[in-house]
Design brief:
The complex is a heterodimer of chains A (204) and B (174). Helices cover 32% and strands 20% of the residues of chain A. With 204 residues, chain A is α+β, with helices and mostly antiparallel strands. Chain A has one domain: Glutaredoxin. Chain A has a 7-stranded mixed sheet with strand order 2-1-5-4-3-7-8, covered by helices on one side. In chain A, strand 4, helix 3 and strand 5 form a beta-alpha-beta unit. The radius of gyration of chain A is 18 Å and the shape is globular. Chain B has one domain: Glutaredoxin (3-Layer(aba) Sandwich), CATH 3.40.30. Chain B contains 6 helices and 7 strands. Chain B starts with a helix and ends with a helix. With 174 residues, chain B is α/β, with parallel strands linked by helices. Classes of the chains: A alpha+beta (204), B alpha/beta (174). The interface between A and B is medium-sized, with 33 and 27 residues.
Chain lengths: 204, 174
């Protein structure tokens, strides 16, 4: 009996370790890679893919959630990005990557409530089964990928933070995502292709 | 009569002394609480990330009160600090709490949990500059930990339990 418990504990420890190693950095997309499309459930119950956006020139894909203070600090700025760029061909698609068993505050009902309270105008999708975020290589919320549509598929043009001041939206100096999308709209090279910011680890 | 006056003065003085000393104790206690929380920018923090004392091994953990897996593993870092204090190991807890939450969240948390390890608040918005300086492989997700001494340095973007943490540390102090 004791041995069984020990074996079980060892197994749990091993699985826990294995699940952590999966999250490790170094995997996922780099700038220049072609990103996978997805088919994920939106807060309105409909399934959403990039392919649904026939007229889009690209996408601002934001891995985000309800429960991370950094993600919350950026909610209004994500909404502003969608307002500014959806009509210009770069809509925001937000994806919630957390395991909702670990973070019930990120479940579908909570996502719907948050989107309603904040008046999100962009799709807020659930990465059910957590299959998409590891392909992108997202490690935290918020984590942004700016994609440009090419003949080969949506090409990764920028990975990182929204801007350089998580504490104070009014004191931002560098608007990394806006600079990237503006450059793409002008047919220019993205000035800063990757940035790093603190965020909440994605809950597995 | 004289004796009585002397006695009254004596009592009065001793009472006065008592009051004064208890006041100063309170002031000291508050002073310590203030001192415990250093608020540094990254440049100021750097001395904690590079051998302060050559013989010591440092375990630097990046965390925040709002980060559930960080809070979960804090007791293990505390335990490590206690168990290895005689082995020249020092744990430093670098909080990434929002500066506006120092008084409302961080200080009450520190008071409630009575942490023994040194806690520093890193207040530096330019994370795109300093994250790669902590480690080139750090995506910015927390919890994250560095263990280092004069001869070895290792970065971990992951959570720990006590056994895992101890196993890593032992590679530095064997």
């Amino acid at each position: 009996m004791k041995n069984t418990i020990k074996i079980c504990l060892a197994l749990i420890a091993f699985l826990a370790l294995a699940s952590f190693t999966n999250v490790g950095g170094g995997h996922g997309y780099h700038v220049g890679d072609i990103a996978t499309d997805f088919k994920l459930e939106n807060i309105d119950g409909k399934m959403v893919s990039m392919a649904d956006f026939k007229d889009a020139k690209g996408f601002i894909v934001v891995f985000t959630c309800n429960t991370c203070p950094y993600a919350v600090a950026y909610e209004d700025r994500v909404e502003a990005l969608n307002k500014k760029y959806a009509d210009q061909g770069y809509p925001v698609i937000a994806i919630m990557p957390n395991n909702t068993d670990v973070k019930p505050g990120d479940n579908m009902e909570a996502m719907q409530a948050r989107a309603k309270a904040k008046g999100f105008t962009f799709p807020y999708l659930m990465d059910k089964g957590q299959k998409i975020y590891p392909q992108y290589g997202a490690t935290k919320t918020p984590h942004v990928y700016v994609l440009q549509r090419t003949k080969k598929g949506p090409q990764v043009k920028y990975i990182g933070a929204i801007d350089d001041n998580y504490q104070d939206a009014s004191a931002v100096n560098k608007r990394y995502v806006e600079d990237a999308v503006d450059a793409l709209l002008q047919g220019e090279d993205v000035p800063v292709e990757t940035t790093r910011a603190i965020g909440c680890s994605i809950k597995v | 009569m004289n004796q009585l006056v002397k006695l009254v003065i004596l009592i009065f003085l001793s009472l006065g002394n008592g009051t004064t000393s208890s006041n100063s104790v309170t002031a000291n206690a508050m002073g310590t609480a203030e001192e415990e929380l250093k608020v540094l920018n990254f440049e100021e923090l750097q001395s904690y990330l590079n051998s302060k004392e050559a013989k010591k091994t440092y375990v630097v953990n990046f965390w925040a009160t709002w980060c559930a897996p960080c809070v979960k593993e804090l007791p293990y870092f505390e335990q490590l600090n206690t168990n290895y204090s005689n082995a020249d190991v020092e744990v430093i807890l670098v909080s990434l709490d929002f500066p506006k939450h120092i008084d409302s969240k961080l200080k009450p948390f520190l008071k409630k949990n009575a942490l023994n390890s040194e806690v520093i608040l890193l207040d530096d918005i330019d994370s795109n500059t300093w994250i790669p300086k902590v480690d080139k492989n750090w995506s910015g997700a927390i919890p994250a930990t560095i263990i280092y001494n004069k001869s070895r340095r290792q970065f971990y973007e992951r959570s720990f339990n006590y056994a895992e943490l101890e196993t890593e540390l032992q590679q530095f102090i064997k």
